[in-house]
Amino acid sequence: MELNLNEDYHIHSNFNDHSPENLSISNIVTQAEKIGLKKFAITEHVRKTSDWVPQYLDQIESLKRENIIVGFEAKILPDGSINCPQEYMGNYFIIASFHGLLKDKQLWLKALETAIQNPDVNVIGHLGPEPTFDLNEDELNNLAKLIVSNEKIVEINAKYHWPLLSWLKVFKKNGVKFHLSSDAHSLTEIGNFEKIKDLIDFVKNE
Description:
This protein is an alpha/beta fold. The protein has helices at 25-34, 53-61, 105-116, 137-149, 165-173, 197-205; strands at 7-11, 39-46, 68-75, 93-97, 123-124, 153-157, 177-181.
């Protein structure tokens, strides 16, 4: 399976409260072009209460670059809903991810399954188990089939080194589609996939 090292589908900016000030939209674009990215997604953390979104969208869209995908990373809530203002769902590139522990395997699975079936979600972000549980092969097969039937992409995430190799094996066998995501929170992390070289090699070569 092909994975394009010149594409990065998960980059953050300084519109959040934990990235450096120099991670501006314009600096992201400059850095991405400097290292030769052909396509990249700017996907800031968003909540339903976020009030900065219009400014964020204006800054990206004013650049008029066809190689930029405009989107958001939004939290999967315990009921499986997505913590993103509804007016942006379906109109922008949406990564749905867990942030924080649910501490209950069945609750986690149900929330994930609900998110996967959400037609406005494009990607499942940094997918991996919580520390207190893993999924067995039957559970992974069922999850993979749900991902494929709902046409979702699973990112291979450099920040967390996820999914686990054992999960990738089952996902790949079931025909899950992947793409690369740095989950960059600094300029130097953009397009940097060195930490997931083993996962990339498995997907491409095995």
